[in-house]
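input
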Amino acid sequence: MLGLLDRLGAATLSTDAVVHELYGTPGVQTAVRARWGDDAVPGGRVDRAVVARLAFADPADRIWLEGLLWPLVADRIAAFRDDVVSRRPPPPVGVVETPLLFEAGMDAAYDATIAVIADDQLRSRRASARGHQSLAARELRQLSQDEKARRATYVIENSGTLAELEQSVTRVVGLLTSAGPAGLGPPDADAGR
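output
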């Protein structure tokens, strides 16, 4: 999806990519090793599958990991926003892909939110194809598709064809572009969600 947004001229940031990058930093590696031992950081590299298994198996471990990573991710998002608003000319819109956006309470940091929803069976097949482990535990942590759609400013249905997805994304980017700001700043106090 970010590739499509890039083609439409949006500035994009994947917080998943940020987390993967953070796992390569000495501070995060040291903290993960202290929490879970050398098995979680074999050969000096964080094993994301091991960390996911451990974090989703124990709520205290998940909370600890979120407490470690989320402030660092928030710093990267702030730097991305600063970069986007300083560009000349500015991009038509800035998009930050944030899994667990609503669950983490991070939605208030954005002018608008987009929920990309799909049929549950299709989502499960796609997640399995991407090699996601601990899918059931992850699902328990997430809001339902209906709740995400209810909370989002815009909803994109992703159960159809790629052409249908592209049409929906193009429509939402057009709406965001006509709305004004780059879509990255804190919401205006008077603006309704």
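quick obs: The longest helix spans residues 59-86.
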